[in-house]
Amino acid sequence: MDNFSYRELLDEWQDEIRMGGIAVKELADDTPLFVYDLQLIERKYLALRNRLSKNVKIFYAMKANANRYVAKKLADLGCGVDIASKGEFAVAKNFKDIIFSGPGKTLDAIKHVGPICSYHVESFNEAEKVATALSHQRIGVRVNASFQVDKGVITTSGGCQKFGIDEEQIPLTIKRLKKLKIKLSGLHCYSASGVLDAKLLSENARKIIGLAKRIEDSCNVTFDYIDIGGGIGVPYKKTDPLFDLDLFCNEINNLAEEREIWIELGRFLVAECGVFLTRVVDVKKSRGQAIAITDGGINNMLRPAILQQHPIVKADELRPQKTEKYYVGGQLCTSLDFFSRDVRLPKLKEGDLLAVLNAGAYGFSESMPFFLGHDIAGEVAVEKGKIKEIRKVSAEWYLLRR
Length: 402
Ligand SMILES: Cc1ncc(COP(=O)(O)O)c(C=O)c1O
Description:
Blueprint: H1 6-13, E1 18-19, E2 22-23, E3 33-37, H2 38-49, E4 56-61, H3 68-76, E5 80-83, H4 86-91, E6 98-100, H5 107-113, E7 118-121, H6 124-133, E8 139-144, E9 154-155, E10 165-166, H7 170-179, E11 186-188, E12 192-193, H8 198-219, E13 225-227, H9 245-255, E14 260-265, H10 267-270, E15 274-286, E16 289-294, H11 303-307, E17 312-314, E18 324-329, E19 338-345, E20 353-356, E21 378-383, E22 386-390, H12 395-399
Parallel strand pairs: 3-21, 4-5, 4-14, 5-6, 6-7, 7-8, 8-10, 8-11, 11-13, 13-14, 16-18
Antiparallel strand pairs: 1-2, 3-15, 9-12, 15-16, 15-20, 17-20, 18-19, 21-22
Helix pairs in contact: 2-3, 8-9
The structure holds pyridoxal-5'-phosphate (PLP).
Residues 61, 63-64, 82, 101, 190, 193-194, 229-232, 264-268 line the site of pyridoxal-5'-phosphate.
């Protein structure tokens, strides 16, 4: 099976976590630390690419992880990239096809990024800005559809949204753009994140294509491509299903027979490639509950506290005989700072190495690094035994420059 989740990786690793063939404990002198296995990204990308027809273009949503080695790996594999800022653009330069999405693009950012594969505009105002700054630039319109994917972890379409232009406002927007001789070449609709039900995400894609056709007919426009967004989820729990990639890709290939389809993915491509390593710095009990305090916290990785779903293991003891229930949290003086309130782990002591899995997506990129002035987590990318390191940045360095 070429598609996989953290559960299959635990089976592959057997007793201890290995990234790029190296036991992560060998890399963990200086924690907290993110470790990325670039080969795992290749496996995930190819699992998708090999199932999709040529008429489907894949873009990497760099917001999931802007580590330069991760980005370069995907660029080398021929993937396109979806950026959301000037900073991400700086890392995106190896990619052949770049698209720019996200609300509130400023004229400054548009001029800085310059001509690219397409801008996905989120308002009439933005379309005007892009067309004024860059003549002949391809523009796609992001639509806030009237429908919603209801089982996504996070939905970004349907109802009132800051994203895109409401479906009902599209005809008038196109009329106004036509008056200014601004052409829309594509339609973009990003609906949800973390969807594990392939049928649901395929149905949503079908609805987006239907919406595009209705707009084409009623507004007398033709779109070169339809971007159906991202949202393929990955399992975080034992009971989560593995997304049915065959079903989804077959459906998308059917839709792509008529026209070019774009898909932009973050989590699916990079979640499993990363582990976040953190050492236990204290162990105690509070009213009967075992507590492990770690040297990493939500300053390094915020998502587990918000969604309470990331798997946590002891990095060098993946099959413990006996376990205990732990609350695992970092050093920050806020009760928000925890990785899990009840995870079963072998008996822990100071110095033990814990690993938060699925940390390749929305880990480092979605941290709050300056809260409390701890050092910023380091990053290491590993490929077939070769190590590419990005050093830890001391918070002192930044704070004294403010
Ligand atoms: C415009 C856009 N595209 C793609 C993505 C990637 O989503 P996912 O990581 O769920 O695939 C996001 C995530 O927020 C997004 O905002």
